[in-house]
Design a protein that fits this description.
With about 150 residues, the protein is α+β, with helices and mostly antiparallel strands. The chain has helices spanning about 20-30, 40-45, 140-149, and strands spanning about 15, 75-85, 95-110, 110-125, 130-140. The longest helix has 11 residues, at about 20-30.
């Protein structure tokens, strides 16, 4: 279904690590460590500012990959792994994009399922990698049928 998309990437999209969004995200996931939202804590840290929680890149815009048009409902979040060179700093610009790393299918008890493997990256304006992630999106038989129409 998406084999022909392997190797395709989106264009880099500018995102801002906005302090208010970081605070709301930390509250939503129940991690109220002051490094995420207390300015004094951020200033006294080795980063000299607040940082974002490790899963914060989930809210970033990674752009669109040609040929990948998935519905907002019915997908299964299979796996997500992050690797950081350094934390995300409050207020900084992050340039994000995604690449289709792999696609394969397996038969399960509910029919054939597709496994879309995406690698995503967050870079500085200059192009230095700040973080990368690998995500597996599971496409159920029901969703596959809708996509094939």
């Amino acid at each position: 279904m998406f084999k022909e998309c392997i190797g395709r990437s989106s264009k880099r999209v500018k995102n801002i690590v906005e302090s208010g969004a970081v605070k709301k995200f930390a509250e939503a996931i129940g991690d109220l460590h002051p490094i995420y939202f207390d300015e004094d804590t951020g200033l006294s840290s080795r980063y000299k500012t607040n940082i974002a929680p490790p899963t914060f890149p989930r809210v970033f815009d990674y752009g669109e990959i040609e040929g990948i048009h998935l519905p907002n409902k019915g997908l299964i979040h299979g796996e997500q792994v992050y690797h950081y060179e350094r934390p995300l700093l409050a207020g900084e610009e992050i340039y994000c994009y995604s690449t289709v790393k792999d696609y394969y299918e397996k038969n399960g008890s509910n029919g054939e399922m597709g496994f879309l493997v995406l690698e995503s990256f967050g870079e500085s304006k200059e192009g230095s990698t700040i973080f990368s992630s690998k995500q597996v999106v599971i496409i159920t038989e029901a969703v596959r049928k809708v996509l094939m129409v």
